[in-house]
Amino acid sequence: MAVEDAKKFVDHLQKDHALQDKFREGFKRIQEMGAEHGYHFTPAELREHLRHRWGIPKPPADDEKDTCTICLA
Known about the structure:
By secondary structure, this protein is mainly alpha-helical. The protein contains 3 helices and no strands. The protein has one domain.
């Protein structure tokens, strides 16, 4: 049931631009948390690292509103 809810949430996220903006705010918080632990990087540098780590050959543009990058730990 929880996996189905996760799928439904991501489906909802794809359509809800306000929620996508909140996710982007969360990405900035990740940068702040890194700095609190002595790690300094830009959001672009983190996205680039995750792109390589996850093998994403052509990521969407940063300003592409219909796309949301999700970082899961």
